[in-house]
Amino acid sequence: MSLLNDALRAAEERQNQNRVAGAYTGQPMAQSAGRSRAPVIILLILALALISGAIAWWLLSGDSEEPAVVATVEPTPERKEMTETTAQPQAIVEPVLAEPAARTEPSTPAAPPVEVALVTETAPEPLRPTDREPAAAESEPDVIQAAQTQPQPSAPEAHTESRAPETSVKQQRETPEAVDLRTSRELASMLASGRNGEAERILAELTDRQPAPQSRETFAREMLVLDMPGRALEWLPDSVTKEYTGLRLLKARAQLAQGDLTLALATLQARVPPVAEQVEYRITLATLLQQAGEADESAGHWSELIAHDDSQGAWWLGLAIALETGGRNRSALQAYTQAAAMPGLSASLADYARQRISVLQAES
Question: How far is the C-alpha of 11 from the C-alpha of 2, rounded, in Å?
Fold first, then answer.
Protein backbone atom coordinates (compact mmCIF):
# COMPACT_ATOMS: atom_id res chain seq x y z
CA MET A 1 0.00 0.00 0.00
CA SER A 2 2.92 2.34 0.56
CA LEU A 3 3.92 1.93 -3.08
CA LEU A 4 0.44 2.95 -4.18
CA ASN A 5 0.53 6.12 -2.04
CA ASP A 6 3.97 7.05 -3.39
CA ALA A 7 2.72 6.61 -6.96
CA LEU A 8 -0.32 8.86 -6.30
CA ARG A 9 1.83 11.57 -4.71
CA ALA A 10 4.21 11.49 -7.68
CA ALA A 11 1.26 11.84 -10.09
CA GLU A 12 -0.14 14.87 -8.17
CA GLU A 13 3.25 16.59 -8.09
CA ARG A 14 3.69 16.16 -11.82
CA GLN A 15 0.21 17.51 -12.43
CA ASN A 16 1.01 20.61 -10.38
CA GLN A 17 4.25 21.11 -12.27
CA ASN A 18 2.42 20.95 -15.60
CA ARG A 19 -0.07 23.55 -14.42
CA VAL A 20 2.74 25.93 -13.40
CA ALA A 21 4.56 25.39 -16.68
CA GLY A 22 1.39 26.23 -18.61
CA ALA A 23 1.01 29.46 -16.79
CA TYR A 24 4.51 30.48 -17.63
CA THR A 25 4.40 29.49 -21.27
CA GLY A 26 0.99 30.93 -21.90
CA GLN A 27 -0.53 27.58 -23.15
CA PRO A 28 -4.26 27.00 -22.60
CA MET A 29 -5.19 25.06 -19.51
CA ALA A 30 -7.44 22.66 -21.37
CA GLN A 31 -4.63 21.37 -23.52
CA SER A 32 -2.23 20.93 -20.57
CA ALA A 33 -4.88 19.03 -18.63
CA GLY A 34 -5.52 16.67 -21.54
CA ARG A 35 -1.87 16.00 -22.03
CA SER A 36 -1.22 15.41 -18.33
CA ARG A 37 -3.87 12.63 -18.04
CA ALA A 38 -1.86 10.17 -20.10
CA PRO A 39 1.08 9.92 -17.64
CA VAL A 40 -1.34 9.60 -14.73
CA ILE A 41 -3.13 6.71 -16.38
CA ILE A 42 0.17 5.05 -17.17
CA LEU A 43 1.30 5.53 -13.59
CA LEU A 44 -1.97 4.11 -12.30
CA ILE A 45 -1.58 1.09 -14.56
CA LEU A 46 1.99 0.63 -13.40
CA ALA A 47 0.90 1.01 -9.78
CA LEU A 48 -1.82 -1.58 -10.22
CA ALA A 49 0.67 -3.88 -11.91
CA LEU A 50 3.11 -3.42 -9.05
CA ILE A 51 0.35 -4.02 -6.50
CA SER A 52 -0.77 -7.14 -8.33
CA GLY A 53 2.81 -8.38 -8.54
CA ALA A 54 3.34 -7.70 -4.84
CA ILE A 55 0.15 -9.59 -3.92
CA ALA A 56 1.12 -12.48 -6.21
CA TRP A 57 4.63 -12.59 -4.75
CA TRP A 58 3.24 -12.54 -1.21
CA LEU A 59 0.80 -15.37 -1.99
CA LEU A 60 3.48 -17.42 -3.71
CA SER A 61 5.96 -16.90 -0.86
CA GLY A 62 3.27 -17.89 1.63
CA ASP A 63 2.57 -21.14 -0.26
CA SER A 64 6.24 -21.98 -0.49
CA GLU A 65 6.72 -21.37 3.25
CA GLU A 66 4.09 -23.97 4.29
CA PRO A 67 4.83 -27.10 2.29
CA ALA A 68 5.20 -29.06 5.49
CA VAL A 69 1.51 -28.63 6.33
CA VAL A 70 0.19 -29.63 2.91
CA ALA A 71 2.76 -32.08 1.65
CA THR A 72 2.77 -35.43 3.39
CA VAL A 73 4.68 -38.52 2.51
CA GLU A 74 2.44 -41.48 1.98
CA PRO A 75 4.22 -44.68 3.02
CA THR A 76 4.61 -47.29 0.32
CA PRO A 77 2.66 -50.58 0.61
CA GLU A 78 5.76 -52.42 1.76
CA ARG A 79 6.42 -49.78 4.41
CA LYS A 80 2.81 -49.97 5.59
CA GLU A 81 3.13 -53.74 6.01
CA MET A 82 6.26 -53.28 8.07
CA THR A 83 4.53 -50.57 10.09
CA GLU A 84 1.51 -52.74 10.81
CA THR A 85 3.68 -55.57 12.12
CA THR A 86 5.86 -53.42 14.35
CA ALA A 87 3.65 -50.52 15.51
CA GLN A 88 1.71 -50.86 18.71
CA PRO A 89 -2.04 -50.72 18.08
CA GLN A 90 -2.74 -48.05 20.73
CA ALA A 91 0.28 -45.78 20.18
CA ILE A 92 -0.44 -42.78 17.92
CA VAL A 93 2.17 -40.13 17.36
CA GLU A 94 0.77 -36.66 16.67
CA PRO A 95 2.44 -34.95 13.70
CA VAL A 96 4.42 -31.83 14.48
CA LEU A 97 4.01 -29.03 11.96
CA ALA A 98 7.34 -27.82 10.74
CA GLU A 99 8.02 -24.10 10.86
CA PRO A 100 9.21 -22.35 7.69
CA ALA A 101 12.83 -22.84 6.91
CA ALA A 102 13.41 -19.07 6.76
CA ARG A 103 12.46 -18.53 10.43
CA THR A 104 14.40 -21.14 12.43
CA GLU A 105 16.97 -23.77 11.73
CA PRO A 106 17.42 -26.79 14.06
CA SER A 107 20.62 -26.73 16.07
CA THR A 108 21.14 -30.46 15.63
CA PRO A 109 20.25 -32.61 12.63
CA ALA A 110 16.79 -33.99 13.14
CA ALA A 111 16.11 -37.71 12.86
CA PRO A 112 14.81 -38.78 9.45
CA PRO A 113 11.04 -38.19 9.40
CA VAL A 114 10.61 -41.57 7.76
CA GLU A 115 11.17 -43.23 11.13
CA VAL A 116 8.03 -41.53 12.49
CA ALA A 117 6.08 -42.80 9.52
CA LEU A 118 7.32 -46.31 10.26
CA VAL A 119 6.23 -46.12 13.88
CA THR A 120 2.67 -44.90 13.28
CA GLU A 121 0.29 -45.68 10.50
CA THR A 122 -2.36 -43.04 11.22
CA ALA A 123 -0.45 -39.75 11.32
CA PRO A 124 2.99 -39.80 9.70
CA GLU A 125 5.08 -36.67 10.20
CA PRO A 126 5.44 -34.67 6.95
CA LEU A 127 8.80 -34.21 5.37
CA ARG A 128 10.42 -30.79 5.11
CA PRO A 129 12.16 -30.02 1.85
CA THR A 130 15.24 -28.70 3.68
CA ASP A 131 15.62 -31.83 5.88
CA ARG A 132 15.66 -34.43 3.14
CA GLU A 133 18.54 -36.87 3.18
CA PRO A 134 20.04 -38.83 0.29
CA ALA A 135 18.35 -41.96 -0.94
CA ALA A 136 20.73 -44.19 0.96
CA ALA A 137 19.90 -42.42 4.24
CA GLU A 138 16.15 -42.75 3.62
CA SER A 139 16.39 -46.46 2.89
CA GLU A 140 18.46 -47.16 6.00
CA PRO A 141 15.50 -47.11 8.47
CA ASP A 142 13.62 -49.47 6.12
CA VAL A 143 16.50 -51.92 6.23
CA ILE A 144 16.71 -51.69 10.02
CA GLN A 145 12.96 -52.12 10.39
CA ALA A 146 12.94 -55.10 8.03
CA ALA A 147 15.78 -56.69 10.00
CA GLN A 148 13.80 -56.24 13.21
CA THR A 149 10.60 -57.77 11.84
CA GLN A 150 12.29 -60.57 9.90
CA PRO A 151 12.43 -63.85 11.91
CA GLN A 152 15.84 -64.67 13.30
CA PRO A 153 17.44 -67.66 11.56
CA SER A 154 19.11 -68.83 14.74
CA ALA A 155 15.81 -69.44 16.56
CA PRO A 156 14.86 -72.60 14.61
CA GLU A 157 18.41 -73.89 14.98
CA ALA A 158 18.33 -73.34 18.72
CA HIS A 159 14.93 -75.02 18.84
CA THR A 160 16.30 -77.96 16.87
CA GLU A 161 19.32 -78.23 19.17
CA SER A 162 17.09 -78.20 22.22
CA ARG A 163 15.06 -81.08 20.77
CA ALA A 164 18.12 -82.99 19.60
CA PRO A 165 18.71 -84.68 22.98
CA GLU A 166 15.04 -85.71 23.12
CA THR A 167 15.12 -87.37 19.69
CA SER A 168 18.68 -88.70 19.66
CA VAL A 169 18.75 -90.20 23.17
CA LYS A 170 16.18 -92.98 23.03
CA GLN A 171 15.58 -95.50 25.73
CA GLN A 172 16.83 -98.87 24.59
CA ARG A 173 14.28 -101.61 24.60
CA GLU A 174 14.92 -104.23 27.27
CA THR A 175 15.81 -107.68 26.08
CA PRO A 176 13.79 -110.66 27.38
CA GLU A 177 16.77 -111.67 29.51
CA ALA A 178 16.94 -108.22 31.12
CA VAL A 179 13.22 -108.22 31.82
CA ASP A 180 13.50 -111.70 33.33
CA LEU A 181 16.38 -110.66 35.58
CA ARG A 182 14.59 -107.54 36.78
CA THR A 183 11.39 -109.45 37.46
CA SER A 184 13.25 -112.20 39.36
CA ARG A 185 14.61 -109.57 41.73
CA GLU A 186 11.15 -108.12 42.25
CA LEU A 187 9.80 -111.59 42.95
CA ALA A 188 12.54 -112.28 45.49
CA SER A 189 11.63 -109.07 47.32
CA MET A 190 7.93 -109.93 47.32
CA LEU A 191 8.53 -113.50 48.51
CA ALA A 192 10.79 -112.28 51.30
CA SER A 193 7.97 -110.03 52.54
CA GLY A 194 5.39 -112.82 52.31
CA ARG A 195 3.52 -111.53 49.23
CA ASN A 196 3.48 -114.93 47.54
CA GLY A 197 0.17 -114.42 45.75
CA GLU A 198 1.24 -111.14 44.19
CA ALA A 199 4.57 -112.65 43.15
CA GLU A 200 2.83 -115.59 41.51
CA ARG A 201 0.48 -113.27 39.64
CA ILE A 202 3.42 -111.26 38.24
CA LEU A 203 5.16 -114.50 37.28
CA ALA A 204 2.06 -115.65 35.41
CA GLU A 205 1.91 -112.40 33.43
CA LEU A 206 5.58 -112.68 32.52
CA THR A 207 5.50 -116.35 31.49
CA ASP A 208 2.67 -115.60 29.06
CA ARG A 209 5.17 -113.59 27.00
CA GLN A 210 8.46 -115.47 27.49
CA PRO A 211 9.98 -118.53 29.22
CA ALA A 212 11.45 -116.43 32.09
CA PRO A 213 13.73 -119.15 33.51
CA GLN A 214 15.26 -116.96 36.24
CA SER A 215 11.89 -115.82 37.53
CA ARG A 216 10.63 -119.41 37.54
CA GLU A 217 13.72 -120.54 39.43
CA THR A 218 13.32 -117.81 42.05
CA PHE A 219 9.72 -118.73 42.73
CA ALA A 220 10.30 -122.52 42.69
CA ARG A 221 13.20 -122.30 45.14
CA GLU A 222 11.07 -120.35 47.58
CA MET A 223 8.31 -122.93 47.29
CA LEU A 224 10.79 -125.73 48.09
CA VAL A 225 12.00 -123.80 51.13
CA LEU A 226 8.38 -123.47 52.24
CA ASP A 227 7.99 -127.25 51.71
CA MET A 228 5.51 -126.77 48.88
CA PRO A 229 7.01 -128.97 46.10
CA GLY A 230 3.71 -129.35 44.28
CA ARG A 231 3.35 -125.60 43.85
CA ALA A 232 6.94 -125.43 42.66
CA LEU A 233 6.34 -128.14 40.04
CA GLU A 234 3.48 -126.08 38.57
CA TRP A 235 6.07 -123.61 37.24
CA LEU A 236 8.54 -126.29 36.07
CA PRO A 237 6.96 -127.94 33.00
CA ASP A 238 9.00 -130.27 30.77
CA SER A 239 8.77 -127.80 27.85
CA VAL A 240 10.86 -125.34 29.84
CA THR A 241 13.05 -127.54 32.08
CA LYS A 242 14.52 -129.52 29.20
CA GLU A 243 16.22 -126.33 27.92
CA TYR A 244 17.44 -124.97 31.29
CA THR A 245 19.76 -126.93 33.62
CA GLY A 246 18.85 -125.00 36.77
CA LEU A 247 15.15 -125.66 36.30
CA ARG A 248 15.78 -129.41 35.82
CA LEU A 249 17.71 -129.51 39.07
CA LEU A 250 14.86 -127.78 40.93
CA LYS A 251 12.34 -130.08 39.37
CA ALA A 252 14.33 -133.17 40.46
CA ARG A 253 14.52 -131.85 44.02
CA ALA A 254 10.79 -131.19 44.05
CA GLN A 255 10.14 -134.70 42.79
CA LEU A 256 12.50 -136.11 45.42
CA ALA A 257 10.68 -134.03 48.07
CA GLN A 258 7.50 -135.81 46.98
CA GLY A 259 9.31 -139.18 47.46
CA ASP A 260 9.81 -140.09 43.81
CA LEU A 261 13.55 -140.94 43.59
CA THR A 262 13.27 -142.71 40.25
CA LEU A 263 11.50 -139.76 38.60
CA ALA A 264 14.05 -137.37 40.05
CA LEU A 265 16.94 -139.42 38.61
CA ALA A 266 15.22 -139.58 35.23
CA THR A 267 14.89 -135.82 35.24
CA LEU A 268 18.57 -135.30 36.07
CA GLN A 269 19.87 -137.91 33.64
CA ALA A 270 17.89 -136.51 30.71
CA ARG A 271 20.67 -134.03 29.95
CA VAL A 272 23.78 -134.05 32.12
CA PRO A 273 25.78 -130.77 31.89
CA PRO A 274 29.60 -130.57 32.15
CA VAL A 275 31.02 -130.29 35.65
CA ALA A 276 32.46 -126.84 34.95
CA GLU A 277 29.01 -125.49 34.02
CA GLN A 278 26.93 -126.95 36.84
CA VAL A 279 28.80 -128.43 39.82
CA GLU A 280 25.73 -128.57 42.06
CA TYR A 281 23.84 -130.51 39.39
CA ARG A 282 26.53 -133.21 39.30
CA ILE A 283 26.77 -133.46 43.10
CA THR A 284 23.03 -134.02 43.33
CA LEU A 285 23.10 -136.62 40.57
CA ALA A 286 26.00 -138.56 42.17
CA THR A 287 24.27 -138.51 45.56
CA LEU A 288 20.93 -139.73 44.16
CA LEU A 289 22.67 -142.47 42.19
CA GLN A 290 24.36 -143.58 45.43
CA GLN A 291 20.97 -143.72 47.14
CA ALA A 292 19.47 -145.64 44.22
CA GLY A 293 22.24 -148.29 44.46
CA GLU A 294 23.98 -147.17 41.28
CA ALA A 295 27.43 -147.17 42.93
CA ASP A 296 29.54 -147.38 39.81
CA GLU A 297 27.75 -144.51 38.10
CA SER A 298 27.89 -142.49 41.31
CA ALA A 299 31.65 -143.14 41.61
CA GLY A 300 32.09 -141.97 38.03
CA HIS A 301 30.43 -138.61 38.75
CA TRP A 302 32.46 -138.20 41.98
CA SER A 303 35.63 -138.87 40.06
CA GLU A 304 34.75 -136.17 37.52
CA LEU A 305 34.10 -133.72 40.32
CA ILE A 306 37.49 -134.47 41.96
CA ALA A 307 39.21 -134.08 38.60
CA HIS A 308 37.64 -130.63 38.42
CA ASP A 309 38.70 -129.72 42.00
CA ASP A 310 40.59 -132.18 44.23
CA SER A 311 40.60 -129.93 47.29
CA GLN A 312 37.07 -130.82 48.43
CA GLY A 313 37.13 -133.41 51.27
CA ALA A 314 33.38 -134.10 50.93
CA TRP A 315 33.85 -135.19 47.33
CA TRP A 316 36.60 -137.61 48.37
CA LEU A 317 34.30 -139.01 51.03
CA GLY A 318 31.49 -139.46 48.49
CA LEU A 319 33.84 -141.30 46.15
CA ALA A 320 35.02 -143.56 49.01
CA ILE A 321 31.42 -144.49 49.92
CA ALA A 322 30.56 -145.27 46.28
CA LEU A 323 33.70 -147.42 45.89
CA GLU A 324 33.02 -149.31 49.12
CA THR A 325 29.40 -149.90 48.08
CA GLY A 326 30.65 -151.23 44.74
CA GLY A 327 33.03 -153.70 46.48
CA ARG A 328 36.26 -151.91 45.69
CA ASN A 329 37.59 -151.72 49.24
CA ARG A 330 41.25 -150.98 48.43
CA SER A 331 40.30 -147.96 46.31
CA ALA A 332 37.76 -146.99 48.97
CA LEU A 333 40.47 -147.11 51.71
CA GLN A 334 42.63 -144.72 49.75
CA ALA A 335 39.66 -142.36 49.17
CA TYR A 336 38.76 -142.41 52.91
CA THR A 337 42.38 -141.66 53.85
CA GLN A 338 42.46 -138.72 51.43
CA ALA A 339 39.14 -137.35 52.73
CA ALA A 340 40.28 -137.53 56.39
CA ALA A 341 43.41 -135.57 55.53
CA MET A 342 41.53 -132.78 53.78
CA PRO A 343 41.03 -129.53 55.70
CA GLY A 344 37.52 -128.16 55.90
CA LEU A 345 35.81 -131.48 56.38
CA SER A 346 33.23 -131.41 59.17
CA ALA A 347 34.03 -133.23 62.41
CA SER A 348 31.26 -135.79 61.96
CA LEU A 349 32.34 -136.66 58.42
CA ALA A 350 35.98 -136.81 59.51
CA ASP A 351 35.06 -139.26 62.30
CA TYR A 352 33.08 -141.39 59.86
CA ALA A 353 36.06 -141.46 57.44
CA ARG A 354 38.48 -142.56 60.24
CA GLN A 355 36.04 -145.24 61.39
CA ARG A 356 35.76 -146.70 57.88
CA ILE A 357 39.53 -146.61 57.53
CA SER A 358 39.92 -148.72 60.65
CA VAL A 359 37.33 -151.24 59.43
CA LEU A 360 38.82 -151.61 55.96
CA GLN A 361 42.35 -151.93 57.37
CA ALA A 362 41.18 -154.68 59.71
CA GLU A 363 39.47 -156.57 56.89
CA SER A 364 42.55 -156.40 54.73
Answer: 14
Q: How far is Cα 188 from Cα 358, in angstroms, rounded to an integer?
A: 48
pLDDT tens, residue by residue, 190-202? 999 999 999 999 9
Longest distance between any two alpha carbons in the chain, whole Å:
207
Give the pLDDT confidence of 205-222 residue by residue, as tens digits: 999 999 999 999 999 999
Is the model's pLDDT at 331 over the cut of 90?
Answer: yes
pLDDT interval class at 231 (50, 70, 90) = very high
- How far CA 90 is from CA of 93, 193, 258, 312, in Å, comes to 10, 70, 92, 96
DSSP of 209-255, one letter per residue? TS--HHHHHHHHHHHHHTT-HHHHHTT--HHHHTT-HHHHHHHHHHH
DSSP summary character for residue 133: -
Q: Enumerate the H helices of 150-212 as residue ranges.
A: 154-168, 176-192, 196-207
Instruction: Tell me how far CA of residue 11 lies from CA of 51, 204, 286, in angstroms.
Output: 16, 135, 161
Cβ count near 165 (within 10 Å) = 8
Residue 354's pLDDT band, with cuts at 50, 70 and 90, is very high
Global pTM reads 0.53
Amino acid (one-letter) located at 206: L
With residues binned 3-state (H G I as helix, E B as strand, rest as coil), the percentages for the chain, rounded to 5, are: 70, 0, 30
| Rg over CA atoms, the chain | 63
